[in-house]
Amino acid sequence: MSIRQTLLASAAMAFWAGGAQAFTLHILHINDAHSRIESINKYDSTCSAEDEAEGACFGGVARLVTAVNEIRAEAEAAGEPVILLSAGDQFSGSLFFTTYQGQAEAEFMNAIGFDAMVLGNHEFDLGTEPLAAFINAVEFPVAYGNTDATGDEFMADLNPDPVILEVDGHRIGIVGAVAPETAEISSPGDGIVFTDTVETMSRHIEELQADGVDHIIGLTHVGVTSDLEIASEVAGLDILIGGHSHTLFSNTVEDAPYEYPHMVEGPEGYQTPVVQAGAYTKYLGHATLTFDDDGNVTEFTGDTMLLDASVEPDAATLERVAEMAGPIEELKSRRVGETSTLIDGSRDTCRAMECTMGNLVADAMLDRVKDQGVTIAVQNGGGLRASIEAGTVTMGDVLTVLPFQNTLSTFDIKGAALVEALENGVSQVEEGGGRFPQVAGIKYSWTADAAPMEGRIREVLVQEGDEWVPIDPEKVYSVVTNNFMRGGGDGYVAFRDEGSNAYDYGPGLEEVVAEYLAGNAAYEPYTDGRITKVE
């Protein structure tokens, strides 16, 4: 069975009726690729040659080329056009991004033939100059959505919203939305302003409709919770394709949180399909929409497709990937230590509870600066991007976990402000927010029964010698974190506004962790109850 037949067989859903079926459009989509140029293993880290030989790898741009090309060929043979979209966060997550700063992503997206993308929050991780270089390098429009870049020196002249694609004589409108909290969770700079998503999308849709465009796609990077709200509040969308929350919509994967699509009743009473395709190029979404002569959707079929070993990677793409990987292979392969078991850095655990990767990183941070009188470490769970398998740990493994080039930052802060920071850290657990605090030198308990920022933190204990004692609201503690958090990132404004004697230019976090592993030759991952959820 072909790729396309597999997809259509897995889900054939008709939610609308009536109308002459005048136009069928295939929409392929990914989101949150996070620079996974090479294939990934089951832990979302770069796959080894051994695992690839055993058929245990997923995704990567070479598999994406194969899947996209086959679907395109079959659909176009039937006279049905195909467009390929990205719902953001192509940046950050592998050594390809660390090395090429977005240009590798641009090259492969051009080669695959993307038709449009929306900015994700991680596109701003290095500031706007590398992002502007990426936008200038790609051969397709990039939607800014609710991003006002008119005050930025590098991006002011690049905003194309709303996007219109010409597809077989039909005009397809693309309206974008970018996570409004990007100013907190990335580094866009003062010249970038994020506005209301619903208001901006509604205005762009009205502009498109006034211009005679009646096929409109929402392409968002705001997370599934906000996607469902947008679909219920914004009129005129034929489909909403999302990203940011790494959510898998599927009709075939057991325990997938949403079916493909998830239908939401819009403000005018019609049903809007909402979809997303997991993350890291492991899945390719494929939605097929049929429109009548009036531009109304009459039928929807589709599902997400797992890009596993059954999808043969494109040979020419693999060759180019290997060529670009050459300069970073030596760094990637440098051994830094051993681990007895898996170090869990998964999104599901590190953004909701104590995780072994969080303990490793926080312990390493604290160990590096303990001679300076620092007693507490705090690391955001969202800054941990992968797990590390048992066995030899390489620098490539560490950089995949910590791809953001953050540096250690130390500062002094009163106990009350530190508790306030922890309140912020547990304020978005339900949404999988990356601000969840992994810690060392303190223990805390929290509850989800209280409203965010209203007493979720129930107890904080600090280590004094061999004893654990309640935190003193008026006492000043010395803390280490990363420079992103110290600057107020992920909502840690208490660190920025209440901290004193700050030094933000310590060694790179990845080097700190690598050296810590090297100093603990047979590292044993562990949890010890430093974070407790109570009812």
Question: How would you describe this protein?
Answer:
This protein is of the alpha/beta class and 535 residues long. Helix 9 (224-233) links the parallel strand 10 (215-221) and strand 11 (239-241). The N and C termini lie far apart (49 Å).
User: Helix segment count?
Assistant: 17
**Overall domain count:** 2
Helical amount? 25-40%
Q: Under the CATH scheme, which class of the largest domain?
A: Alpha Beta
Strand order of the largest sheet: 1-15-14-2-3-4-5
Mean pLDDT: 92
- Low-confidence spans: pLDDT under 50, at least 5 residues? 1-21
Under CATH, the homologous superfamily of the largest domain reads Metallo-dependent phosphatases
Total number of β-strand segments? Answer: 27
Query: What would you call the structural class?
Result: alpha/beta
Ends distance: 49 Å
What's the Cα radius of gyration?
Answer: 23 Å
How would a crystallographer describe the biggest sheet?
Answer: 7 strands, mixed
CATH architecture of the largest domain: 4-Layer Sandwich
As a percent range, the share of strand residues is 25-35%
